Structures are given as structure tokens and as C-alpha cells.
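Field log, afternoon session.

UNIT: design team B
ACTIVITY: writing a sequence onto a fixed backbone
BACKBONE:
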């Protein structure tokens, strides 16, 4: 009795599996793998049914010699070939996922390049277009000041000249933020150092101490790599100064064996890493930018215990990839 129940359960399970295989066959546009699985499961049901009737009636089906043995062989063959086709499906899916990720990375890289190009163009327009006009206006005011007829006119011209000087200074700062000229001229290490000096200088109230260590000197890398790493470091420092209340920031920028490594820490108030990575655009941008270089980012933090970031980028890989692109 127990054996009969077990065989019935086996038949029911195989029928359910057959129905699932038929649905998968329809969903995958009659892929050969699921057709073979369906056939194999049907044949297994026939084998179980023959066993069931033999146990119930005590008689075997009148079948040709070796028929059940051949059924077993065909069933095994169906599953073996089906698994081969499933392997092909898995490999095809992996290739599609790789192509999708590669396409996404290329799109992101194109967006970042376009963004930096527009920043550069806007920076040039400000620096080379509006800057000279204001300088010319300042020179004209200087000439007018020489012929001022009263003390009030001289004071007014002086104040106007001061305002134009401030406007010229602001244009230079905005132009430099949009496209850092130090980065383009002297490279990553000098640009980061200048950024740190300015960031500390303009911070209101108590200023954080920023310890910057690097073994970079005059090394130059792909423009895209330098710009992205510069933006990432700037975003990290900006977040620490604006949001964490950190009093000490340490930044290490090292280069060895074609690998650029950034180690960053602050002693600020910290945050919930998972929550911030899901909702914080700053850290999301950092991750996306580094991933566009196929680098690695590890950001960790705990409340009241500050934060740390470890970033690595293979510059040889990025140089070769950008040449291909």
C-alpha cells in the first residue's frame, strides 16, 4: 500500500513538472530544451504507470522485449540533451548581460565625457568671452577716474571698479570649478592640492584639517581618468565638510603598477551606508563615475564613527579601453 501511494505521488509530481515544462516551452518560443524535458517527463510517467499497474494487478504490460529499457534510455537522452541546451541558454544569457553592462558603461562614459566637454566649453566662454569684456570696462573706468570732476564721482568710479574686480574674480572661480585649469595643465596631484587649499579657505567657522599624501609628481593619465578622479575626490571632501562636521580628513592618492589607489577617511558623524547609497546622490555619483572606469569602490561608515572610502582604478586598462572606444 505504501509503495502504491509513493508511486502515485511520483506520477503527480512528474505531471506537475510536465505542465511547468510545457508552459516554459510556450514562454521560450518552443525552445528545444523544454520540449525534450517535456518528452522525458511524459516517458517517466509511463514508466511509473507500468510499475503502478504491476503492483495493483500483479501483471506486466504486454510490451516488446527491452521496450522499457529503451524508454529509459530515451528518457535519459532527452534530459541529457535538454541540459546541453539549457547550458547554451545560460551562456547566451550571460553574454547578453555582459553586453548590457558594457553598453551601460559606454553610455555612462559618453554622458560623463559630454558633461565635461560642456563644462569646458562654458568655462571657456566665461573666461575668454565675458572676462575680457569686464577687464575692458575696468580699464575704461580707470581712465574716467583720472578725469573725475568731484570727490563723489571719484568715489562712485572706485566702487564700480571694485564691483567689476569682484565680478572678474567670481568668473575666474566659476570657470575654474567648471573646468579646473590646474588639472588640465599640471595634472591630478597639483589640482587636488589646490582644491583642498580653496575648500579649507572658503569653509565658514572652524576649518577642518585635511592631510593629503601622494606619491604622484608629474605623471599624467587619460583625461577622462583624471577628471573623474578629481570630481570624486572633490565630492568626498565636499560631503565631509558640508554634512559630517569632520575636524580631520585624511586623503591618500597613490600610484603603483598601473593602479591608482585612493584612501579617504574623516572623523565626522558618519551615516547609515545602505540608506545613503540608496538615496544619496553624492555617493551614487561617486560609485557610478568609478564604475565607468571599471574601478572598485568600497565605502563604509558607522554613526558617530566617521566614514572611509577605498577606491582603485587600473589606468592601463582604462587607457586601452578608451583608445578602442
Amino acid at each position: 500500500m505504501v509503495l502504491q501511494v509513493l508511486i502515485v505521488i511520483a506520477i503527480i509530481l512528474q505531471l506537475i513538472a510536465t505542465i511547468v515544462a510545457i508552459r516554459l516551452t510556450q514562454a521560450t518560443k518552443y525552445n528545444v530544451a523544454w520540449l525534450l524535458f517535456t518528452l522525458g517527463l511524459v516517458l517517466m510517467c509511463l514508466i511509473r504507470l507500468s510499475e503502478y499497474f504491476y503492483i495493483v494487478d500483479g501483471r506486466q504490460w504486454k510490451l516488446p522485449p527491452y521496450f522499457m529499457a529503451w524508454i529509459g534510455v530515451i528518457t535519459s537522452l532527452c534530459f541529457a540533451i535538454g541540459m546541453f541546451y539549457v547550458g547554451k541558454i545560460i551562456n547566451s544569457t550571460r553574454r547578453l548581460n555582459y553586453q548590457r553592462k558594457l553598453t551601460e558603461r559606454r553610455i555612462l562614459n559618453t554622458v560623463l565625457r559630454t558633461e565635461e566637454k560642456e563644462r569646458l566649453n562654458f568655462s571657456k566662454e566665461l573666461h575668454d568671452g565675458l572676462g575680457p569684456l569686464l577687464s575692458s570696462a575696468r580699464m575704461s573706468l580707470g581712465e574716467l577716474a583720472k578725469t573725475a570732476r568731484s570727490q563723489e564721482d571719484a568715489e562712485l568710479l572706485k566702487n564700480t571698479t571694485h564691483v567689476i574686480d569682484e565680478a572678474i574674480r567670481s568668473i575666474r572661480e566659476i570657470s575654474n570649478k567648471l573646468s579646473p585649469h590646474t588639472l588640465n595643465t599640471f595634472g591630478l596631484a597639483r589640482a587636488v592640492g589646490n582644491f583642498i587649499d580653496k575648500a579649507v579657505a572658503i569653509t565658514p567657522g572652524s576649518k577642518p584639517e585635511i592631510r593629503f599624501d601622494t606619491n604622484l609628481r608629474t605623471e599624467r593619465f587619460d583625461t577622462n581618468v583624471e577628471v573623474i578622479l578629481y570630481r570624486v575626490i572633490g565630492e568626498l571632501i565636499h560631503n565631509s565638510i558640508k554634512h559630517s562636521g569632520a575636524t580631520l580628513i585624511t586623503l591618500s592618492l597613490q600610484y603603483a603598477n598601473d593602479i591608482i589607489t585612493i584612501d579617504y577617511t574623516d572623523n565626522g558623524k558618519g551615516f547609515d551606508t545602505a540608506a545613503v547609497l540608496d538615496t544619496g546622490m553624492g555617493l551614487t555619483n561617486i560609485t557610478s563615475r568609478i564604475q565607468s572606469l571599471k574601478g572598485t569602490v568600497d565605502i563604509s561608515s558607522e554613526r558617530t564613527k566617521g566614514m572611509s572610502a577605498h577606491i582603485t582604478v587600473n589606468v592601463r586598462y582604462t587607457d586601452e579601453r578608451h583608445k578602442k572606444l
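LOG NOTE: Residues 67-146 form the longest helix (80 residues).
NEXT ACTIVITY: expression trials, pending approval
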